[in-house]
Amino acid sequence: MLSQQDNEVLTRVGPGTPMGELLRRYWTPALLSSEIPEPGGDPVRVRLLCENLVAFRDLNGRVGLIQENCPHRGASLFYGRNEGTVGAPGTPGPGICGLRCPYHGWQFDADGACIDMPSEPPTSTFKDRVRAKAYPTHESGGIVWTYMGPADTITPFRDFGTESLPREHQLATKLGSTCNWVQTMEGNVDTAHISWLHMFDAAEEVPDDGSDKPGYPSNAMTWKFWIHDRAPRLEVQDTWYGFRYAGLRTTPNEHTNVRITEYIFPYSTIIAAVPFNTRHLMVVPVDDHNCFRYTFNVSVDANPHGYGGGPLHDYSPFETPFTRQAGGITPRDYVEDNTYLIDRDVQRTETFSGIRDFVSQDLMVTESMGPVYDRSQERLGTIDKAIIRMRSLLIRAAKSLTAEGTTPPALAGPDHDFTRLRGADKILADGEDWRYLGTDDDPAVQEAEAFRRAEVADAADAPTVTQPAAGE
């Protein structure tokens, strides 16, 4: 358990709080690029780390993220006009454009500069001394990221693999949750709960398909492993970016299945999958009581069968009784107001939770703790090693930054390659060490990379097809 003081440090993210100041040192998802798709389109409200902001894409395509309240009298710039002039080809400069406040016409560009103040005399220079708070933005992987820390501590963008990802392979979603961000994060580093919260009775009856042996199990067999051994042993490996942790389970045939999840400081995870996984699940605090779950691709899927990461492992589809509610920013169907559509008869006879939607099972347990859970009341066990480690890293980093100005961990740097991080899942051979799984030394990773290179080469060698000119 934590002291109430440490629980406050861990969960409070507003300006001036230790955790809030720590998280502001990292490039953070602010919204999806798809929320502001068109130059000159409608602005969007953004609440992030307890600050109310407005995002917009100006007529030149630049993304601005500025304070919601106009510096003049506080009217919301969400209701402003996204207008201006577009730079013409062959003319210097990109043109003058930005959000114009509906109250008195003051206009602010993507950098927060007041570029027009038509309600003041033409000779006035007042606009040159007025700025809206604005944060730098960077688009990558279908997400608009922002840096909210001090200008003199800004770091390069942490590239998880999205910078070189072709547009057709970019896939990013976000899903809102009405609880503190740490509660959601703790579910992401808790491998034990899948044997309970996400389980269904028929998983125990899955027939042995021959993959319960050293190597890569089928999707169906992994569910059987989870229900067969519901008390996994946890091991944690510290890394420069956070840690990796392994959940070890004994299979029905007395082998050891390992699920390896990555924790990337401060708020990202890569969940285990067979044979490996690169997709991120990142939890971003809206404020102390709300958060968004972002998921995004960082690499081209090298598996033609669409499961895991290795091209030579054919994983047949496996039916479960669960649905998956769409991500994105659509309204949720499963919420506390309708008790997550729990079906008590299904809970008694079919699934452990009685909630049909897979992700909503997670939301139910984390939101039911209340907006900010008092961790001084909890009692932790051996299955909570990864949670304890994550909390320790976060609290120590926040306190060290506040008290001593210590540089936060896992920032972008020449020795920090964030594109080579992967979760993994495998049945171990006797004496096999799980720590190499998902790394560049893993044969499954090497196999997938060779497959990807071959596909790239084939695409480069393909003949170019030209369209005939009109009339031909």
UniProtKB/TrEMBL annotation:
Domain Rieske: 27-146
Keywords per UniProt: 2Fe-2S, Iron, Iron-sulfur, Metal-binding, Oxidoreductase
Xref: InterPro entries: Cholesterol_7-desaturase (IPR050584), LigXa_C (IPR045623), Rieske_2Fe-2S (IPR017941), Rieske_2Fe-2S_sf (IPR036922)
Keyword Oxidoreductase: yes
Pfam families, A to Z: LigXa_C, Rieske
Protein name: Rieske 2Fe-2S domain-containing protein
Organism: Pseudonocardia zijingensis
